[in-house]
């Protein structure tokens, strides 16, 4: 009887270890290899739609300071959303009139 | 559950209850345990095909968030009347395209622009039963331009534009009842065919006793031509045929281009209790039609003009509106006047599927009650016709000798063969409804090489590109009729299901199981890259030619024409113009013509008004749609945008005031101003 009990335990433990190993085989490599690099809406490729605020600003040589400030403040994703947004967009020239000390504080 | 597992479980139970063990069993028990333990070790390996999915199934069907599927899968919605679009291998549902049934979610069949799409010679028909999608081909290969679908109840064929995934044309089929043998297409989409399932009295001789079936009921197959550039359909000709039931069809391709093959049952021509009366003969037919020859007969003036009535509905993507036209004539070819155009080939028994292989040489018939799968050879068909190797005639149409046209029979394939698809390596995959399985066999020697169960009762199959000259292969999908215990139960009414099998190796492996919309019949799959690059993002507002367009907020207005009030409304994040309307009276009919001024991808606006007896509008960027509303009481009625469009979507709302008949409140409209003038 004792031997039979041991066998029964072996069977049950076999069941558990069996499940574990098959789970590992199935899912783990899939997750690591396949997870896509995900950007926000600013990363959407779209040449048909009207340009949003961010795309207009990025394309403008007069707003490079604004764009880098938006990037630094991490507003690019927000402003690429559905809006509607009204953005007062100072030109580089306008930014240049701000004293440097103000920038630093 | 396998026998091995059953043994194992029995043994464990017996170990737990040793006092119930018989003496005899006690003696064999240690051996039994050893055997079952070793068997159990085996079952630790990926389970074999007969029990469940393979060990790497999750990996094979997994598409990571943000990644695309490899194939689009266009699946018939059966009695939902629609066509659904899934991704493969993930089984994710992307879109349900409304085709033959109204769809309040999208306003299809409810807004004024799409109502004419569902017009028929019987008037407005809000529902049908879509069985078979067919994707357009050029030189026998998917070209990604259009999908066609059949209406099985009120005979029609629809065309869907694969740039917009919208139904753009529906044509009704006269002299037909139950358009099942449809819409199968020729190699270059020259024709879409529509064969009638029910033979019926022809449209010019309708009031006859049902028991005069043999004299008065006839079958027809219609050849509908498709314009190469626009895709516009028109019935080129019909062929008048004996009163059998046409079931399914496939065009020839490659060497058999110019021919079309139709399966037919009920060669007994029974009009009652068909399950008994139409299964008397051992063989019915596969019908071979030389459609190039038919074209010549039409050109030579052999076709008779028949007066009929059928609608032809076309959606114009510039006016964003459909127009329904009633057509009154069709050309009919009678094989008695047109020799060498139609032949019958005997096919066992009650044929259903009729599929041509990628080379066009083999035509596979599947008799629902047959014990074998006959495979016909196109070369032998041509030889038999040339040698007039006939086995008499059926209703005046020559019957080719079975043995003369047969490539061979697949022996002991399974029970109840229905449909066959093909891969690029000379393999065929046939579904078996009764034995609930897919059987893989070789076209060359007709040997069965693999079989897998389906869960349960499979109907159609789909291999990506399976009906074309260039199957993409990789998967076979089973579309099942019965689900029972496969998913969480949802009361008596259960979903149907699809099962995805990997066919890249020698053995078919089940890797995914997903629910479907309505009952899936046939489906096709096409590589994603063929379609996705052409998919439209917006409608260009400058190309909008809708008669009630307001191209900008300055063009928004409200006009009265007698008791019709036309609201030229615009929507843009996050307001309507106008959003306050007064001076409308009981007895007026209000037309809300709403233009979505957005030109930004995935920014639809919706529109709904309280108490409207139809549905919402769902308006894509650059599009105009019209909701008709008959106010039923005096009061002020809210209206709002139904599609979450922006952070201030919930603010996108307005009011319309309805005053009593005879009220002298002037018509006025505004947005952003509180006009004091029209009070009281």
What is the fold's blueprint, element by element?
The complex is a heterodimer of chains A (105) and B (680).
Chain A: H1 2-34, H2 53-58, H3 64-72, H4 76-79, H5 92-96, H6 100-104
Chain B: H1 3-16, H2 23-44, H3 57-61, E1 71-76, E2 83-88, E3 93-97, E4 119-120, E5 123-124, E6 130-138, E7 141-151, E8 156-161, E9 166-172, E10 181-185, E11 191-195, E12 200-201, H4 213-216, E13 217-226, E14 233-241, E15 245-251, E16 259-265, H5 274-277, E17 283-290, H6 291-299, E18 304-316, E19 321-333, E20 342-348, E21 351-356, E22 362-367, E23 372-377, H7 378-386, E24 390-394, E25 397-400, H8 402-405, E26 406-411, E27 417-422, E28 427-432, E29 437-442, E30 448-453, E31 458-462, E32 475-480, E33 496-502, E34 509-516, E35 523-527, H9 528-532, E36 557-561, E37 564-572, E38 575-577, E39 580-585, E40 589-596, E41 605-609, E42 617-619, E43 624-629, E44 635-640, E45 653-659, E46 668-670
Parallel strand pairs in B: 14-19, 37-40, 39-45
Antiparallel strand pairs in B: 1-2, 1-35, 2-3, 4-5, 6-7, 7-8, 8-9, 9-18, 10-11, 11-13, 12-13, 13-14, 15-16, 16-17, 17-20, 18-19, 21-22, 22-23, 23-26, 24-25, 27-28, 28-29, 29-30, 31-32, 32-33, 33-34, 36-37, 37-38, 39-46, 40-43, 41-42, 41-44, 44-45
Helix pairs in contact in B: 1-2
- The CATH class of the largest domain in chain A is identified as Mainly Beta
Cα Rg of chain B: 29 Å
CATH topology of the largest domain in chain B: Methylamine Dehydrogenase, Chain H
Q: Please, what is the oligomeric state?
A: heterodimer
Of all chain pairs, the largest interface belongs to: A-B, 34 and 42 residues
Helix content of chain B: 10-25%
Residue share in β-strands of chain A? under 5%
Poorly predicted parts of chain A: 6-34
How far apart lie the N and C ends of chain A? 82 Å
What are the secondary-structure elements of chain A, in order, as H or E? HHHHHH
CATH class descriptor of the largest domain in chain B? Mainly Beta
- Write out the CATH superfamily name of the largest domain in chain B: YVTN repeat-like/Quinoprotein amine dehydrogenase
- Give the tally of β-strands of chain A: 0
The count of strands of chain B amounts to: 46
Q: Label the overall shape of chain B.
A: globular
What's the tally of helices of chain A? Answer: 6
């Amino acid at each position: 009887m004792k031997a039979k009990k041991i066998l029964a335990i072996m069977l049950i433990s076999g069941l558990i270890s069996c499940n574990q190993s098959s789970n590992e085989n199935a899912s783990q490599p899939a997750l690591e290899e396949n997870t896509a690099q995900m950007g926000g809406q600013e990363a959407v490729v779209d040449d048909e739609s009207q340009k949003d605020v961010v795309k207009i600003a990025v394309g403008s040589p007069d707003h490079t300071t604004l764009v880098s400030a938006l990037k630094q403040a991490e507003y690019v994703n927000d402003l690429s959303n559905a809006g509607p947004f009204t953005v007062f967009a100072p030109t580089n020239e306008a930014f240049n009139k701000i004293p440097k000390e103000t920038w630093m504080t | 559950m396998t026998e091995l597992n059953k043994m194992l479980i029995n043994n464990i139970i017996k170990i737990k209850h040793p006092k119930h063990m018989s003496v005899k069993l006690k003696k064999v028990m240690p051996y039994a345990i050893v055997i079952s333990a070793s068997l159990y070790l085996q079952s630790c390996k990926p389970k074999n095909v007969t029990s469940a999915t393979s060990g790497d199934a999750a990996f094979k069907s997994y598409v990571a968030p943000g990644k695309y599927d490899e194939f689009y899968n266009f699946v018939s919605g059966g009695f939902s009347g629609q066509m659904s679009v899934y991704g493969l291998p993930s089984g994710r549902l992307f879109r349900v395209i409304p085709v033959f049934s109204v769809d309040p979610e999208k306003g299809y069949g409810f807004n004024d622009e799409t109502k004419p799409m569902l017009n028929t010679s019987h008037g407005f028909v809000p529902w049908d039963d879509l069985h078979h999608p067919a994707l357009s081909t050029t030189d026998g290969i998917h070209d990604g331009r259009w999908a066609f679908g059949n209406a099985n109840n009120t005979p029609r064929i629809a065309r869907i534009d694969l740039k917009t995934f919208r139904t753009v044309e529906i044509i009704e089929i006269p002299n037909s009842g139950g358009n099942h043998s449809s819409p199968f297409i020729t190699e270059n989409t020259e024709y879409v065919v529509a064969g009638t399932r029910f033979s019926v009295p022809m449209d010019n001789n309708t009031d006859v006793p049902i028991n005069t079936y043999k004299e008065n009921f006839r079958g027809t197959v219609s050849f509908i031509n498709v314009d190469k550039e626009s895709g516009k359909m028109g019935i080129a000709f019909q062929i008048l045929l004996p009163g059998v039931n046409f079931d399914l069809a496939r065009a020839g391709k490659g060497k058999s281009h110019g021919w079309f093959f139709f399966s037919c049952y009920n060669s007994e021509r029974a009009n009652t209790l068909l399950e008994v009366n139409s299964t008397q003969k051992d063989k019915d037919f596969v019908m071979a039609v030389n459609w190039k020859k038919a074209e010549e007969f039409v050109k030579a003036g052999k076709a008779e003009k028949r007066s009929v009535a059928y609608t032809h509905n076309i959606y114009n993507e510039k006016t964003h509106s459909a127009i329904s036209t009633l057509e009154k004539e069709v050309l009919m070819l009678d094989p008695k006047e047109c020799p060498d155009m139609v032949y019958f080939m005997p096919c066992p028994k009650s044929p259903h599927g009729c599929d041509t292989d990628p080379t066009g040489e083999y035509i596979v018939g599947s008799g629902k009650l047959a014990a074998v799968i006959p495979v016909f050879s196109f070369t032998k068909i041509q030889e038999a016709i040339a040698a007039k190797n006939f086995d008499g005639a059926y209703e005046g149409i020559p019957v080719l000798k079975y043995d003369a046209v047969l490539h061979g029979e697949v022996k002991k394939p399974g029970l109840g063969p229905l449909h066959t698809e093909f891969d690029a390596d000379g393999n065929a995959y046939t579904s078996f409804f009764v034995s609930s399985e897919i059987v893989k066999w070789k076209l060359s020697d007709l040997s069965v090489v693999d079989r897998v169960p389906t869960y349960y009762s499979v109907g159609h199959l789909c291999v990506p590109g399976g009906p074309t000259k260039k199957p993409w292969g990789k998967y076979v999908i089973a579309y099942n009729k019965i689900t029972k215990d496969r998913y969480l139960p949802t009361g008596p009414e259960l979903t149907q299901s699809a099962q995805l099998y990997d066919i890249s190796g020698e053995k078919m492996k089940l890797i995914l199981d997903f629910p479907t919309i309505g009952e899936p019949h046939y489906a096709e799959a096409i590589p994603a890259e063929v379609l996705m690059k052409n998919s439209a993002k917006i409608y260009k507002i400058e190309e909008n030619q809708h008669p009630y367009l307001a191209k900008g907020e300055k063009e928004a207005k409200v006009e009265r024409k007698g008791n019709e009030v036309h609201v030229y409304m615009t929507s843009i994040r996050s307001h309507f113009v106008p959003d306050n309307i007064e001076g409308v009276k009981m007895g007026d009919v209000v037309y809300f013509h709403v233009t979505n001024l957005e030109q930004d991808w995935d920014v639809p606006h919706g529109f709904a008004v309280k108490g409207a007896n139809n549905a919402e509008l769902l308006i894509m960027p650059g599009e105009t749609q019209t909701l008709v509303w008959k106010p039923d009481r005096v009061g002020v009625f809210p209206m709002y945008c139904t599609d979450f469009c922006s952070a201030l979507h919930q603010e996108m709302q307005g009011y319309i005031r309805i005053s009593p008949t005879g009220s002298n409140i002037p018509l006025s409209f505004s947005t952003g101003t509180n006009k004091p003038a029209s009070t009281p």
